[in-house]
Each structure stands twice: as structure tokens, then as C-alpha cells.
Amino acid sequence: MNINIKKLKKNAIIPTRGSEYAAGYDLYACLEKPIDVKPGETAKVPTGISMEIPVGYVGMIFARSGLATKKGLAPANKVGVCDSDYRGEYIVALYNHSNKTVTINPGERIAQLVIMPFLEVEFNEVNELNDTARGSGGFGSTGK
């Protein structure tokens, strides 16, 4: 699959994969200078890119495991959803879960983008739903 991508800034970096079979494409901070993210704060980090995700697909922005576990930085919204009709700059809101100020440097890998198909559905309002063994049992109801 080919996806059209546009650099909005000269120093933007096209997403890359860390290994041959990686599902995620690393997104890079497109910054002029380093920024500090204090504990408990969120920084909106630009990537300097926009793209055309094909209809029927969505771009999901996830944390990079190394950045999250080593520095405490992860997307503030947990998972970003990039719809196929969005043409603006991809910006990653990174929240600092640690108790130390963390510096994000220009060109640093800040998140990963996974392109996924999704199902378009129509909701059909009904008066009753089919019964199941679980029924309406919620959190922890299966005992596992």
C-alpha cells in the first residue's frame, strides 16, 4: 500500500520502521530546539508531516515502549486516531508520567503509527438484545 505523505517543514522526518516486521512506523519530533516536559504535564509535539490515509483505513498512534518505560512519556490520549479525511499536521500530545522533567530532542522518535483497516457500521436500535451466558456482567464478572 502506498500512502501519500507531505513534509510541512524542511526538518520533518518520514516515518520509519525499526525492524523488517515492525507493525508500527516511528514518528519523529519536528522541533527547532529541545523541549522539556515537566512531571504531570503534556507537550504537543509536532511531527512536521501530514498524510492521506486511504478510505477504509485509520492511522492509530501508540506509545513507543522504550520511551514510555524508560522516560515515562506516552500519548496523553493513550491512542491517537487519525481519520482518512484528516489532512492537518500530525501532532503527538505526550504526557510525562514520571517524577522527573524529560527533554524531547529534535528528531527524536516520539510515538508509533500503525495503519489499520476498520469496519464501517450502521447502528440498528432494537428493544431487546440476544441473551448470552455472560449477559450484562461487567468488570471482573467472568472470574478470570
What report would you give on this structure?
The chain is mainly β and about 140 residues long. Helices cover about 5% and strands about 35% of the residues. It contains one helix and eleven strands; from the N terminus they run ββββββαβββββ. It has one helix at about 65-70; strands at about 5, 25-30, 35, 40-45, 50, 55-60, 75, 80, 90-95, 100-105, 110-115. Strands 2-11-6-8 form a four-stranded antiparallel β-sheet, with no helix packed on it. The chain has a three-stranded antiparallel β-sheet with strand order 4-9-7. The chain has a two-stranded antiparallel ribbon with strand order 1-5. The longest helix has 7 residues, at about 65-70. The protein is globular, with a radius of gyration of 19 Å. The model has no long low-confidence stretch (mean pLDDT about 95).
Quickly describe the structure.
With 144 residues, the protein is mainly β. Helix content is 5%, strand content 35%.
